[in-house]
Write a sequence for this structure.
């Protein structure tokens, strides 16, 4: 995984998450029938994230951030397929727990990957660039979605987001195995 | 290796996508519909809507559970039925015929009062009886047999000459006081249970110029005031009163607005442009504050009273009086809603009734935001007639939560209020949430069994269904 693929895949998933975020909030709000349920659902997300952070940190050192990022993108692609069909508060709570875990994975891997990508030199510049592109995509996505909702149902927005996560996952997989490919080829070369 | 994993990933994803999407599209097959009360979200099969009488006829033959809907401002599920077909009549709204000379108009039932006002105002004509607001469809209004500020023309039923009815077997008949007359008193005030009202011929009144006459008084003086200064004074054509819900003057202070025929009718033209809703922000803010505090209720009452007293002497045409503001009342809290109750009580009973009402309301917890009073003349033409005498109609606007517990709490209080009303030989209005018991319904509407029996005779397959019928008719 090189810096470029990393930024591309991160931008893609940032696009996906910014796109659905406002509607996801709306969904949580609509399924719960009081603000206390809304609070609980949101709190579950945060608290799960908090609790799994140490575990994920350790895991990241063991399996590497590429594996975790793959876990995150595939996981989110799957979650976005579940979101449009949930109907009950119980399902929403479970979804929030799962999202909490995935969110924590993203937070940790984003940072570890960034550190590794920028270890050699120009750390600040690279991080700046990273944030520029991911944020720009996020911003564009939010604005575009504002217009899109007039034409699409909210359900289909989640499906589009799921597809974006899928693409992001595929880019990561592709780049990862490319590396493996070159490793394999090396010994053959004289 | 790479390809294998990617292919596996995509396959699993496709499977998941397929399952998710099939569940999703299945869920979309039912539509959750609510009426204005927001207490009865109901999963319905489909919403159908058409300009064509032929389509309506076809659907009546095809569908086995139909609920007919106009603006859906009824609050007891009168337009809803689980897994039923909702016939949205709003696009069936043409003006079929307008004869200014004979002061008569025929409109399709989805037309609103606003549509009629736009058509007849240029001819100096006006609607005889309708609600205080003009957003409602004619068909919906007929189905609840509305009344309004007018005090001279009775209930809506008195202004209807005839209508066409699409029956449960797909047949279309003319209904008037002479033709198929047995349908007349059932369909009007029939809550959509006897068929689809297609088009309606209504009598019109002359548009007139009125002068507002506003006065404040104590509740115990109202009866006399009304009899002497309103009922007996033929120049007063419309009337509306408001009873205080502010803690300082709770159910004691009132102010009344009489619409008095102006001396010089030649000025009518000057005022006849139809007004649009203008005051929204301030009344909305005040009503908002009064929802949450007693202090707010006092401020709202005082300001409102001052505002109306200041408008005394103002000129307004009949058509404009019948275009009352409502946007400021729109309430969008996801957890709470605002429901209406309307109680009818004979004019002679008013003072004693208010005292008993106050006793209940002071003890119980009910967030009443507004009480308006109108007058309806004795009229028992409709089978489900609420005007068993010359009566005052009190409309209560109540803010309540949407949870089961809150509904239960409101129900307890409202049943007590209805008991008080019935004890004063009163009745209550049916388009609201099904809080009343079956016994209370029977007492307020002695002909209710006759009504439901006739429904079963005329619609033997039970094609026209709604939650009101489900709750009380079975």
């Amino acid at each position: 995984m090189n810096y470029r693929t990393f930024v591309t895949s991160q931008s893609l998933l940032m696009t996906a998450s910014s796109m659905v975020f406002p509607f996801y909030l709306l969904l949580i709000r609509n399924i719960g029938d009081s603000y206390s349920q809304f609070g609980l659902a949101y709190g579950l997300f945060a608290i799960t994230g908090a609790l799994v952070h140490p575990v994920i940190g350790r895991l990241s050192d063991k399996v590497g951030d590429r594996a975790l990022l793959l876990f995150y993108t595939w996981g989110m692609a799957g979650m976005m397929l579940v979101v449009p069909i949930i109907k009950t508060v119980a399902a929403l709570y479970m979804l929030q727990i799962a999202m909490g875990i995935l969110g924590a994975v993203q937070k940790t891997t984003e940072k570890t990957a960034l550190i590794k990508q920028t270890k050699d030199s120009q750390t600040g510049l690279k991080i700046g660039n990273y944030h520029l592109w991911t944020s720009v995509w996020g911003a564009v996505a939010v604005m575009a979605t504002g217009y899109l909702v007039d034409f699409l149902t909210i359900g289909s927005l989640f499906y589009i987001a799921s597809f974006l996560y899928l693409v992001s996952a595929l880019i990561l997989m592709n780049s990862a195995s490319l590396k493996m490919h070159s490793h394999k080829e090396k010994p053959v070369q004289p | 290796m790479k390809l294998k994993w990617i292919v596996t990933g995509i396959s699993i994803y496709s499977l998941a996508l397929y399952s998710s999407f099939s569940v999703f599209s299945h869920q979309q097959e039912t539509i959750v519909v609510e009426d204005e009360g927001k207490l009865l979200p109901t999963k319905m099969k489909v919403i159908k809507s058409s300009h064509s009488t032929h389509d309506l006829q076809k659907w009546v033959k095809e569908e086995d559970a139909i609920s007919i809907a106009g603006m859906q401002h009824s609050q007891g599920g009168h337009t809803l039925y689980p897994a039923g077909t909702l016939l949205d009549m709003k696009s069936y709204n043409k003006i079929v015929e307008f004869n200014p000379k004979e002061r008569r108009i025929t409109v399709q039932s989805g037309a609103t009062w606003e549509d009629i006002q736009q058509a007849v105002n240029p001819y100096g004509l006006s609607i005889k009886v309708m609600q205080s607001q003009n957003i409602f469809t004619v068909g919906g209004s007929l189905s609840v047999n509305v009344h309004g500020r007018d005090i001279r023309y009775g209930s809506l039923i008195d202004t209807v000459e005839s209508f066409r009815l699409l029956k449960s077997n797909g047949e279309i008949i003319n209904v008037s006081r002479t033709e198929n007359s047995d349908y007349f008193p059932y369909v009007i005030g029939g809550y959509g249970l006897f068929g689809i009202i297609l088009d309606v011929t209504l009598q019109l009144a002359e548009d007139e110029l009125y002068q507002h006459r506003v006065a404040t008084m104590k509740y115990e003086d109202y009866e006399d005031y009304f009899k002497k200064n309103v009922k007996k004074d033929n120049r007063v054509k419309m009337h509306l009163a408001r009873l205080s819900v502010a803690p300082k003057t709770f159910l004691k202070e009132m102010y009344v607005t009489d619409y008095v025929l102006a001396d010089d009718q030649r000025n009518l033209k000057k005022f006849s442009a139809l007004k649009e809703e203008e005051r929204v922000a301030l009344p909305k803010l005040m009503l908002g504050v009064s929802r949450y505090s007693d202090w707010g209720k006092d401020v709202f009452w005082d300001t409102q009273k001052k505002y109306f007293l200041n408008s005394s002497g103002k000129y307004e045409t009949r058509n404009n009086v019948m275009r009352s503001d409502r946007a400021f009342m729109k309430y969008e809290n996801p957890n709470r809603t605002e429901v209406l109750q309307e109680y009818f009580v004979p004019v002679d009973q008013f003072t004693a009734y208010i005292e008993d009402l106050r006793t209940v309301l002071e003890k119980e917890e009910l967030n009443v935001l507004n009480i308006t009073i109108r007058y309806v003349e004795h009229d028992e033409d409709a089978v489900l007639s609420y005007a068993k005498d010359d009566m005052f109609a009190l409309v209560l606007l109540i803010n309540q939560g949407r949870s089961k517990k809150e509904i239960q709490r409101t129900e307890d209080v409202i049943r007590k209020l209805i008991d008080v009303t019935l004890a004063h030989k009163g009745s209550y209005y049916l388009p609201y949430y099904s809080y009343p018991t079956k016994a209370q319904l029977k007492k307020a509407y002695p002909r209710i069994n006759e009504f439901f029996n006739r429904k079963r005779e005329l619609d033997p397959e039970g094609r026209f269904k709604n939650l009101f019928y489900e709750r009380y008719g079975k």
Remarks:
- The interface with chain A takes residues 1-2, 5-6, 9-10, 13, 16-17, 19-21, 23-24, 27-28, 334-335, 402-403 of chain B (CB under 8 Å).
- The mean pLDDT of chain B is 93.
- Chain B has three domains: 1-30, 90-206, 209-438.
- The CA atoms of residues 212 and 259 of chain B lie 5 Å apart.
